[in-house]
Design a protein that fits this description.
By secondary structure, the protein is of the alpha/beta class. The protein is built from 7 helices and 8 strands; from the N terminus they run βαβαββααβαβαββα. It is globular, with a radius of gyration of 18 Å. One of its GO terms (molecular function) is metal ion binding.
Length: 187
């Protein structure tokens, strides 16, 4: 009876790791929804049955029937589809003010997702700019445990966080939900 969301992913695709974080946040918000991760290449017969040709791909099931699909790393669209199907209603209305409130709430959750949260370009293993690389090196050198979010994977977060924090550049480091700053401040 409840909604089941299946994420077909691959360990070599960084956008899949990012979407796994989005799914974890959605799972905390929607306890009635079951979220499953399937490594697409490990279950080729299942991937073939459902026409999975790229990762990440999300399939939505209700009453054992496939009811929707999302191809690609589109966090806002995934969130909207989960909300719509979990409620069992039609499309969620999203006037500009409502969308802005949703983004603000989402950003608040993201900055508080870990005690030390780094918003960066790329991932700690593969930074995509020199400033992000230096920030990861500093945190690692000092033994700081941190989580990260690749702002290239979600344009809404990338642009929204600039206004949310009143900080125009990345990386941005948050500790206990409070903005510390960028690379120069951390240095």
């Amino acid at each position: 009876r409840s909604l089941v969301v299946v994420h077909f992913w691959a360990p070599w695709a960084p956008q899949c790791a990012q979407m796994n974080e989005v799914m974890a946040a959605l799972a905390r918000e929607h306890s009635q929804v079951t979220f499953v991760q399937l490594e697409a290449e490990a279950v080729p017969e299942v991937s073939e049955k459902y026409g999975i040709s790229s990762v990440p791909t999300f399939l939505f099931f209700k009453n054992s029937q496939k009811v929707d699909r999302l191809d690609g790393a589109h966090a806002p669209e995934l969130t909207q589809k989960v909300q719509r199907h979990a409620a069992g209603a039609g499309p969620v209305p999203s006037p500009a003010s409502c969308a802005q409130e949703q983004l603000h709430a989402r950003l608040q959750k993201l900055v508080n997702a870990a005690p030390c949260m780094l918003f960066m370009k790329g991932s700690p293993k593969e930074p995509r700019c020199g400033f992000s690389r230096q920030m990861v090196e500093i945190l690692s050198r000092h033994g700081v445990a941190f989580s990260s979010f690749d702002v290239f994977c979600d344009e809404g977060v990338r642009q929204g966080l600039k206004a949310f924090s009143s900080w125009p550049t990345f990386p941005q480091l948050y500790v206990r939900g409070e903005l510390i700053g960028g690379l120069d401040i951390v240095k």
